[in-house]
């Protein structure tokens, strides 16, 4: 695999998005299994879930734009 192919396939951003998805899933499971979550735990989960939109936005915008083609 050439470096150009590696870059075109966006391997690193895809791995990061997959890893974030796994972390998000595990954090959601952890929170749902808490018998009586407190405010700090809820704030932590809200922050992680809210960051998903920003993280996904970075992933989508990390590719080449039409002007680069």
Topology, pairings included?
Elements: H1 3-8, H2 11-33, H3 39-60
Helix pairs in contact: 2-3
Describe this structure as you would to a colleague.
The chain is an all-alpha fold and 69 residues long. The protein has one domain. Helices cover 74% and strands 0% of the residues. The chain has three helices and no strands. Helix 2 runs antiparallel to helix 3. The mean pLDDT is 85.
Question: Keywords, please?
Answer:
0% strand, mainly alpha, 69 residues
* Helix/strand/pairing category: mainly alpha
Q: Whole-Å distance between the termini?
A: 21 Å
Mean pLDDT: 85
Catalogue the unreliable spans: none
Q: How many alpha or pi helices?
A: 3
What is the approximate shape?
A: elongated
Give me the count of strands: 0
Provide the domain count: 1
**Helix share of residues?**
over 70%
The fraction of residues in strands falls at under 5%
Note the main sheet. none
Rg from alpha-carbon coordinates: 17 Å
What is the succession of H and E elements?
HHH
Short description:
With 69 residues, this protein is mainly α. It has helices spanning 3-8, 11-33, 39-60.
